[in-house]
């Protein structure tokens, strides 16, 4: 079971940006954003290449202990980018214009090597995505069909929620 609470951190400060919100809109509660992050299947990660150009690609992630976790191949572009610059943005949402909630999480990608946490994460991946996403844990990384895959943790520093329908833009500061 994926834990979508975070007992170690207090609730973030939520601010509605009226410039980008419908009249009468309210700030989206962090609990709604947490639920969206826990349920989302596909995320987009933005990293920075060594020459400063952006790199954006889809990936899978799980929400656990107040952070997003993802894995990637050791030699994939995003892993190489994060080794040089750990600042990243993870985004999820859908393409609907008039309904839903898009969430953007800004933070620093920190490599995870704790075996107990990696086992919990491997279980969380399988619970969320099914048996095709079962990972073994060895040597501080995930192992699956694509070879060794380091795991990264991104705890939100700042997050944004874009409510659709009754349009709103909420910023959460941690």
UniProtKB/TrEMBL annotation:
Keyword Oxidoreductase carried by entry: yes
Any matching Pfam family: PNPOx_N
Entry superkingdom: Bacteria
InterPro entries linked to this entry: F420H2_bilvrd_red/Heme_oxyg, Pyridox_Oxase_N, Split_barrel_FMN-bd
Cross-referenced Gene3D superfamilies: Electron Transport, Fmn-binding Protein, Chain A (2.30.110.10)
Keywords, in A-Z order: Oxidoreductase
GO molecular function: coenzyme F420 binding; oxidoreductase activity, acting on the CH-CH group of donors
Gene Ontology cellular component annotations, sorted alphabetically: cytosol
Tagged with keyword Mitochondrion: no
UniProt domain Pyridoxamine 5'-phosphate oxidase N-terminal: residue ranges: 32-133
PANTHER family for the chain: HEME OXYGENASE HI_0854-RELATED, PYRIDOXAMINE 5'-PHOSPHATE OXIDASE-RELATED FMN-BINDING
Protein name: Pyridoxamine 5'-phosphate oxidase
């Amino acid at each position: 079971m994926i834990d979508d609470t975070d007992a170690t951190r207090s609730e973030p400060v939520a601010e509605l940006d009226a410039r980008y919100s419908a009249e009468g809109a309210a700030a989206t509660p962090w609990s709604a954003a947490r639920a969206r992050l826990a349920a989302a299947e596909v995320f987009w990660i933005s990293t920075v290449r060594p020459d400063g150009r952006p790199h954006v690609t889809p990936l899978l992630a799980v929400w656990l202990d107040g952070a997003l976790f993802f894995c990637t191949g050791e030699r994939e572009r995003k892993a190489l980018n994060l080794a040089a610059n750990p600042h990243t943005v993870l985004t999820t949402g859908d393409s609907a214009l008039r309904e839903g909630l898009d969430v953007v999480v800004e933070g620093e990608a920190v490599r995870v090597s704790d075996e107990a946490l990696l086992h919990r994460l491997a279980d969380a991946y399988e619970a969320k995505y099914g048996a095709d996403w079962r990972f073994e844990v060895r040597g501080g990384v995930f192992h699956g069909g694509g070879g060794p895959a380091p795991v990264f943790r991104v705890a939100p520093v700042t997050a944004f929620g874009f409510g659709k329908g009754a349009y709103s833009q909420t910023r959460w500061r941690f």
